[in-house]
Amino acid sequence: ERLAASIYSQAQAAAANGEVDVAVGHYQRVYAAVPESETAAIADYDAAVLLMQAGAWQRSVDAMQTFRARYPGHEFQERITINLASALMESGDRRQAADELVAIAGLESQEPEVRRAALWEAAGLMQEAGDLDGATATWKRYVDAYPWPLDQAMEARHTLVEIYRQQGDAS
């Protein structure tokens, strides 16, 4: 653990000096040196966040997906989901961002308004991406879960009708 802490300190110093690539390299070195360390998980998370803050969207997405795979039960997984949705949007992968937004909508730790907005955004992104089956399922989920505010619930229902028309289903 002392080795992990030493490397982590080097990463923090590089990050404080604005040396993003150097800092990320050190953060990633923690896992290479001591993969079972809790410091390794924190370092991997910090690398992903630093890349996100630097606007290195795709690298940040990759780092977050690596974190997700390495530490499936880690307490930072919810933060990863939230940050990953943002990074995916910024990287242009709006369809995959929609999946993360659906996951956010299912997080009980989030405020109801955040969950509602995430589901709304996810359905729209799926529709924009041409995933009409995904959009239909998500709009239905939205309508079932959020009958209020009424104007948005009505708009979601209207959108469902339009999708059904596009698919040739008049029911």
Q: Structural class, from secondary structure content? A: mainly alpha
Number of strands: 0
Helix share bin: over 70%
Q: Which of globular, elongated, flat, extended, rod-shaped describes the shape? A: elongated
Largest pleated sheet = none
* Cα gyration radius (Å): 20 Å
Uncertain residue segments: none
Estimate the mean pLDDT confidence: 96
The span between the termini is: 62 Å
H/E element sequence: HHHHHHHHH
Beta-strand level of the residues, as a percent range? under 5%
**What's the helix count?**
9
Can you put this structure into words, describing what you see?
This protein has 171 residues and is mainly α. It has helices at residues 2-16, 20-33, 38-53, 57-70, 77-91, 94-105, 112-128, 132-145, 150-166.
Give structural attributes.
single chain; 78% helix; 171 residues; mainly alpha
